[in-house]
Amino acid sequence: MKFTRRTAIAAIAALGVTAVPAVAQQYPTKPITAIVPFAAGGPTDVVTRLVAEHMSRTLGQQIVVENIGGAGGTIGMSRAAAAAPDGYTIAVGNMGTQSAAPALYPNLKYDPATSFTQISVVNFTPQTIVSKKGLEPKDLKELLAYLKANSEKLNYGHAGVGSISYVSGFVFNAQFGFKPALVAYKGTGPALNDLVGGQIDYMVDQSLNVIPQITSGTIKAYAVAHPERIAALPDVPTTKELGVDFIFSAWNAMVAPKGLPKDIQDKLLDALSKALDDPAIIKRYEDLGSTAPKGADRGPAGLQKLVESEVARITPVLKAAAK
Amino acid sequence: MWDLISNLQLGLSVAGSLKNAGLCFLGCLIGTLIGVLPGVGPIATIAMLLPLTFGLDPVGALIMLAGIYYGAQYGGSTTAILVNIPGEATAVVTVLDGHQMAKQGRAGIALGIAAIGSFIAGTIATVIIAAAAKPLTTLALMFGPADYFALMVLGLMFAVVLARGSVPKAIAMILLGILLSVVGTDIETGEERLTFGWMEVADGIDFAVIAMGMFGFAEILRNLENKEARAVVSGEIGRLLPNMADLKVSLAPILRGTGIGSLLGFLPGNGAVLGPFASYSVEKKIAADPSRFGQGAIEGVAGPESANNAGAQTAFIPLLTLGIPPNAVMALMIGAMTIHGIVPGPQIITKQPELFWGMIASMWIGNLMLLIINLPLIGIWVKLLQVPYRLMFPAIIIFCCIGIYSINNSPTEVVLTAAFALFGYTLIKLGFEAAPLLLGFVLGKLMEEKLRQAMVISRGSLWTFMERPVSLTLLVLTLVILVVSALPAISKRRETVFTE
User: Fold this and answer.
1) Shortest Cα distance from B254 to chain A (angstroms)?
2) Around B443, how many Cα atoms within 13 Å sit in the side-chain half-sphere?
3) pTM score
4) What confidence tens digit (pLDDT) does each residue in B54-67 have?
5) Given this structure, which CATH class describes domain A126-224?
6) Superfamily of chain region A5-125+251-322
7) ipTM for the complex?
8) Ranges of each domain in chain A
9) Chain B closest CA to A1's CA: distance in Å?
């Protein structure tokens, strides 16, 4: 048979016809692409690779991580939103792409609350309030008083507009009425470097990023913005136990394009759940200062609720800042 | 001193085990083979090969990744020399004289001296890391944004020296490079600049897009002007390896390059980029006959390549001692560590000495492996140059496109590269050079970031650059060089440095 374009089209059509009914039972029959909208090696990438490796074993097909970086992760998520909802393209976004983005990017091609089939939160990473080693205050109460009096003379460092440390710092400073100068860096690494070097004064950043510096004493930690203490920082108190009303976690969430069949969604959630309950992964999460979603937080409904409440909390603060 | 020796001994016993040495060899080999594809720099190579290490224990995995890094870095120099395509910013200067040497049939010698220079630089840098990582870290932390900005201003001086043609044209190219570097999101306000609403360039234009378009593709366009089918190499291919005379000429540049590269490498914020540029400028300035530079001077390959490798290695210092990555490659290494369950940071030295010292020792072993792998490979690379050009150029273009696509999985960037190729070709026709533009582009990004950080921290006072001793010293140095270059008495000599 001569292989012409017409036979090729016929072959593809035939494949399509026979494949459709089989999808439900047999999924997955080929490797799955997981889009990570950030560079390889970052917090979202690391967590995705951790759970993807475990999920691949459950599903019997490889999950291949594809890093599509750019524009604060919105390029990768736009591409995920536009992909076919056949279960072979999934994506892992973070708090930035799934709740801060609409306030920051007016031309955003997706809506975090409606453009995706939600699967589940993958992990929460509580934020930690840290300062350079030489800052005077000894505890959180003193720090808040000190910032109240001096914040206009101080420098807050963040990893770029739209980054987690930018958003969490914005919410923190707005809530307590602090007005530091904002020093922008390209990424967390350079910002932390200058915090250790004492060029900037304080940051609110993901525990994951600051744990090594805190444990080695090169920066000061005041509190973890979380209801419970985290395993990697047993000596650092939480905002809740100190009676300060500031809870803030960064999170990563697994989603698929809108219109994903329910049974495929269930299969993916089941595989993710198995990964999250694996003691080896729980241990890894602890080292990273992360926690896995439990109970109502896990699954599509929990994620949908989280996305909506975070959008509602973050958007007004960022919009007000833009004015 | 004894500590140092016993620590290195521990490291060598870890890295020298048959399994780890094997992994290091494998990493270097794969790294070289992938890195030699035009356009696939160290970042793309490591990201691509990261999953390969998942099944290994953490020490073995990191040793293999370090091997991949060195291999990819050296592979990048290979393409720079052979086909005029710098895989990353640090290889831009290697193109200048390395490719000229290749055209004269001295590709083997250029590749050989790059390998030997890298090995010597690597050996010295390994000792520096082992002996002085801690004090150097303290020094690096004193560098604030203002000091960094002053260093970049000094760096711009190199761009003028890089130029072969007229100085005004070089300055125009530097400014254009800086202009290109501001495309993308403003880091302070989040406002998009010069993107014309185009999301794909919201994070700026990728270095590889400009480098590959303006060097690689533009060079191909120029070659295709000649009607007769020609190989890349016009002349006879001479000796494959450098001889004693070559080594003798190169030794001093290699040592100077190593010093410069090591010093700039451990600074935060990717100071390593400046290393090869600085080394090239120094060599050209002190050469008896600067006009040979740009025409295939071996010192112009030996010095920068050594600086490059020394910097690549001392860039591990902030990563190992602070757990803070100074550049994108190191950020990727941190990610790899985290995936393997290692939390990088100061505690690594005390908690996991076998990992810390094993990795340092593996750097030296990796450099040795590179030498072993590459010296025999040189023959094959040089043979490749004899492939008829009509077969060669489509292959280069295809590999470049794959390389560019793989950076962000973005088809737009491939198209953008084509646009820069046309632009680069036009510049060649008008007698402008791409190297100063690329340096302006690389430094421009850093300069803007550091300048604005310094200004925010000083609340807008320019005195901050005068008050800080490091920044003041660097600025005075820049001024001195400027005045010396401009003095009429020396201007004759300056002419010979800048033009030929």
Assistant:
1) 30
2) 27
3) 0.84
4) 778 888 888 898 88
5) alpha beta
6) Bordetella uptake gene, domain 1 (3.40.190.150)
7) 0.82
8) 5-125+251-322, 126-224
9) 31
